[in-house]
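Look over both lines:
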Amino acid sequence: MLQRTGGEVNTIEIAPHAGALLKSLRGFGYSPETALADLIDNSISAGADHVELSIDWNEGYPRIGVRDDGKGMTFEVLEDGMRFGGDEGVERGAHDLGRFGLGMKTASLSQCQRLTVVSRHDGTTSSMSWDIEKVRSSRSWCVETDTIPDAFEHVDAPKDGDGTLIALERMDELGGFFGLDKEGFFAKIRDVRDHFAMVFHRFLDGDARRIRITINGRPVAAWDPMLRTHPATRPLGAGRIGSGALAVQVSPFVLPHRDRFANENEFTAAGGPGGWAERQGFYVYRAKRLVVAGSWLGLGGHREWTKDESSRLARISIDLPQSADAQWRIDVRKARARPPAALRARLSALGGQCRERAREVFAWRGGQIRSPNQKKDAEAAVWNEEHRSGKRRYRINREHPVIGQLLSGDAATKHLARTAITLIERSVPVERIWLDISENVEAESSPEAVDGLLVDDLVTAIQNTRGSRSPGEVLEGLLRTLRLDGPELKKAVLAKLEIADE
């Protein structure tokens, strides 16, 4: 029952226990790479052109320094920046990557027990430190001032010009760098580098305001998940969906089949952190900073889409304005988003189309297949796609020039050929093939060797193909259908055709 005095409700202030709340705030689930990316956000918001990280092994006691050349902070601004929650009355600019006023503190302290920020602005240096042990022992929200950490291997506190240094020290078991041997430590640095290359690729390659990021003196190169510069990437048409504050830009892409990469290293690199299957789906950008790096966002109708091998070539970018945070439920770590109900149907339709196109490229390696609505053409596909009772069925195309020639013989030959084709269609080990592909999807592929039997078969196919096209044109069509483009194979077939014609 409420106790009232003079008609007003009595209130008392119940302050949280500093140590207990700080312990809870450390458990937001940051990985080292997402935590450090949050610190890069602050540097970008501060107008930095160059962000340098020193991730030091320190004989098994890791330390991390993040140094930028941004505008720096005055003592008052730094004080507000070190406050958990910040100032709720401050309106963020269009290019401010902050979210809740928690990022720098929670991200840093998720990895360490001591956070120090040293900032220089207009010739004046200010510094403050959050120390977990001192907060616990004092049971108060107190920070140390005028503290300067020891120099790092690759960065130091700003001395000339504006800028900020964030120092993470005294790592513990909550952080991802704690307890690693030297090999594991440097492997984790590679994870951080790969994450930065993906999350900040639009800043690194100049699509957004260009910045430089270096880790231990080495620059981070951008990695574009959409592989826009690859000639075999298929953009499916960008466009805006939604209206007003919900309007977003959506750009679907189908990435190339592995056969279209120059070598295995290029193919593996194009898969991105976690590999091809993990990196499929929607890529949500907030103010051009990547927030969600491959997710189907709970879409797919009554049965949510999963990350299947057949859809691994589908990637779709979504550009959000910073003002859409609430509608998309961007979380504190800026690592998760959920599309608003008004956009789900349209996004599902676009995602379904992209998945279907990706499935075709993945399953048929870009080769030709004729659908029920496709008109006949001179370069007939070997396989036809049929739809019956809501199911797909694939049958050998009886009108293919070579198959048609085989079926045009005498009655006995024709009957035997038709029987052989039917047996092949009904005995293709689909499940076994799919299992082999799924288990060996990243296996190394070897260049196509010149097979003498294949050369003979291609020569026979060309000689028995009727029409006005030259043998060279017929060969080009066959090679495209079979997804073979080795110049040595083509040369061998043409050479054998010349001998046969003499």
About this structure: The CA atoms of residues 348 and 378 lie 36 Å apart. The chain has 16 helices and 18 strands. Confidence is low (pLDDT under 50) at residues 442-447.
